[in-house]
Amino acid sequence: MRKVILMVLAIMLVMSTAVFSGGQQENGVDKYALMMSHMTNSFTITLSNAVKAAAEDLGVELVVFDGGQDVSKQISQVESAINQGYAGILIEPASVDGIKPAVTAASKAGIPIVTINQKITNQELADAFVGVEHVEGGEIEMKYVVEAIGGKGKIAFLLGPLGSDGQIGRTTGYYNILEDYPDIEVVYEQSANWRTDEALKLAENWLQTGVELVAIVANNDGMAMGALKAVEDAKMLDKIKIFGVDATDDALAAVAEGRLSATVSQSTEAQALAAMDALVKLANGEDVPSEIIVGHTLITKENVADFQ
Amino acid sequence: MKKLNNIMNVQLMRELGIVIVFVVILAILMILSPNAFARPANLMNIFKQASINGILAMGMMFVIISGGIDLSVGSIVALTGVVAASFAHPGEYPLIVPIILALVIGLFIGWFNGVGIAYGNIPPFIVTLGTMTMIRGVALIVSKGAPVFGVTDAFENIAGAFLFDTIPLLVVYFIVITIVSAYILTKAVFGRRVYAIGGNEISAAFSGIKVEKIRIMVYMISGLFAGFAGLLLASRTVSGIPTAGQSYELDAIAAVIIGGVSMSGGSGRWYGTVIGALLIAVIGNGLDILNVSSHYQLVIKGAIIIVAVLLDVKSKERTA
Question: Which regions span the lipid bilayer (chain B) (predicted)?
């Protein structure tokens, strides 16, 4: 029994040193935490890598946490980070409402907290937001669609999960532009939940209806690639143009090959750099604007080489 | 003789139930959308869209008839798809490598499930829930969380090519796997043993059937088919996506259940499963064409599962 107790104590001792050594200053370098909502698609992987690179450029240490699309897990991660004395927290929220307790806890503890890519409902609790305006992304995408199809014809929308930030914003952007083009008719508007396989099936089914589509406009590139496959299988790429958002590697390749008409970059690197910069400034007591908006970039065959 | 006739009738009734549901839904969709839904090209399209789920459902059918359940197939689809795509980049490995890898990985996970259930005595729901979660994690690890792109044209053709320029290969695979499965279930000794252990495990063991061995093989079939389905999905979407195949296990189970296979095991026919898989594809296709939101589609699909099983239960009550 005594042996067991000794062993437990020994383990606790080792663990507590590990925890306390994770304090604010390690070799004189400030330590920051990046809380990702999840790490299961191209966008989140690119974003977290870009933040890591930005932290390196600024000469600070960064630890990345994966929230696994679970807001309660993300709240626990933020709470642990507060106790471990991180200099600042950058958070890509798993839920725009549910993350409130974590943000409140950080601001109570006096730790700067910046949200990236998604605004939270109680944004005033955080010190700053860095990201893009999804509406602008949708407008840029749709402006190019209008140009590419000559301002008229039947089009279809592939939407993200209904109610998600990206879906609402980008789709609002689409309609903002379409107001001025009464000759463009939206005949289909359905969610494929960001997923390639769902978008593929949906586009295959649309093509069966005989409706003469001139464009399929997707809220993200994953769905655009599914639609592209369906249209290519039906040998209708000369009639139907496809558009996406995100600038994923395969979408960029498809743009370069002239198969995908365009994609819109969320300027992930610029978001990452601006966010990390703002967080370090806040931790050093400087002021930053409460909202830092990074612009989208349209990528077509003309400029795709700059992004690959 | 009269009793035998009676039993035959009831059996027929049960199988007719699902056929009637299928025909009624087809008729409704044809009336609502005569120019799009009923076109021959669309009927082939429905067949194609039913294929991947149909292949998973064939494997699931063996498992459910044996009295088990396999929740891991959706995750197997993701893992084998990611691995296959990773080994299908141009100029690296011959095409056979991703194919073999997908099948072997599926087979191995099925074996693992089977051993856990047969020798570990862990309920199938628990073992396959565990592997479902683990394998999803492994798929995310090997792909580093991001989709795997850049596969060869030959790899894309595995699912994308056509037989005689008209029949999608996906449909051909589905038909071949259905024929093989139907043969095993109805003609082979193995098939009868699957029914036997699902009907009554103890009496099956007394009659000399090696229950453990059959059980493991059943999960291996399901794993193998899931591995093949993963290969096909990766080929179809021209990428290995670690988050793909989510809830595919539920669609496969739904196809089997709609097709009249009893969840308690020991009964069910292969053609029921085929109709179940087709019905799910028909509903999805028909509602997409009618531009019904995917949220309503879920409600309708769920309702049909319940109605189909209700018909099954009611017809069974009449026998008792």
Answer: 12-33, 54-87, 93-112, 124-142, 162-185, 216-234, 270-290
Helix, strand or coil, per DSSP, at residue B8: helix
CB contact under 8 A, B36 and A201: no
Q: What is the architecture, at CATH level 2, of domain A19-131+268-294?
A: 3-Layer(aba) Sandwich (3.40)
Contact between chains at B150 and A250 (C-beta distance less than 8 A): yes
Q: Give the DSSP H/E element, type plus range, for residue A22.
A: none
Query: What secondary structure letter does DSSP report for A72?
Result: H
Distance CA B214, CA B68 (A): 12
- Could you give the CA distance from residue B279 to residue B18 in angstroms, rounded to a whole number? 9
Domain A134-265 sits in CATH 3.40.50.2300:
yes
Collapse the DSSP code of A87 into the 3-class scheme (helix H, G, I; strand E, B; otherwise coil) and give the result. coil
Report CB contact under 8 Å: A202, B237.
Answer: no
pLDDT at A304 over 70: yes
Encoded tokens for B145: 């969380």
Please give the average per-residue pLDDT across A150-156, as a whole number: 93
How many residues are there in chain B? 320
DSSP secondary structure, A260-277, as one string: S-BEEE--HHHHHHHHHH
What is the distance between the alpha carbons of residues B46 and B245, in angstroms, rounded to a whole number?
19
User: β-pairing, A88-91 with A113-116?
Assistant: parallel
Q: Which helix (H) or strand (E) covers residue B255, if one does?
A: helix B248-258
Give per-residue pLDDT as tens, B40-82: 778 888 888 899 999 999 999 999 999 999 999 999 999 999 9
What is the domain partition of chain A in residue ranges?
19-131+268-294, 134-265
Task: Note whether A19-131+268-294 and A134-265 share their fold.
Answer: yes
Average pLDDT for chain B: 86
Global model pTM greater than 0.95:
no
In 3D space, the residue among A33, A193, A177 whose CA is nearest the CA of residue A109 turns out to be A33
Summary mean pLDDT of chain A: 87
Question: B-contacting residues of A 194-253, CB under 8 Å?
Answer: 195-198, 200-202, 204-206, 208-210, 222, 225-226, 229, 233, 248-250, 253
Cβ neighbour number for residue A14 with a 10 Å cutoff: 10
**Residue A99 in contact with residue A93, Cβ under 8 Å?**
yes
